[in-house]
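Today's session is about reading a structure prediction critically. Students often jump straight to the picture, but the first step is always the sequence itself: look for stretches that repeat, for charged clusters, for runs of hydrophobic residues. Only then move on to the predicted structure, which in these notes is written as discrete structure tokens rather than atom positions. Here is the chain we will use throughout the hour.
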Amino acid sequence: MSKKKGLSVEEKRTRMMEIFFETKDVFQLKDLEKIAPKEKGITTMSVKEILQSLVDDGMVDTDRIGTSNYFWAFPSKALHARKRKLEALESQFAESSQKKERLQQSIEKSKIGRQDTAERAALIKELAALREKKEQLKAEIDTYQECDPDVVEEIRLVLELKQLWSPW
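Below is the predicted structure for this chain, in token form.
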């Protein structure tokens, strides 16, 4: 007993577009609800939903004339849309390639003068030692900060203000 599996949404969308491309005609919803189940196996209940998703994505055009809604999609429109998308992607690719080339040139330019030499290695060691000494001196200053006359005076003023403002 094999269960018949329904079509996916993408398959339904593709088959619906085939109806438009094969016939190159304009349809009303009721016409599509008759044609789609017979020719493409799309259930009648999902025709309106699939058609609306195609309209929302700009793949199918629609217009209201009087009290009726008409739907159409021609292969030339899809072709032009793909061409525009391809051109946009190609220009994006070209811009990215140029940016990559500029960055490569910048990297090469920045490497000049940074070759590993004995002098450079000595300067890097000296820089590291000076940074370490700076950190040690900062730590020493922090330990002696509580004896700093400015800090002591500030603490004294804060205490005096607290005594003046406190009610007891």
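Discussion point for the tutorial: The helical segments are 9-23, 29-40, 44-56, 75-111, 118-144, 149-165.
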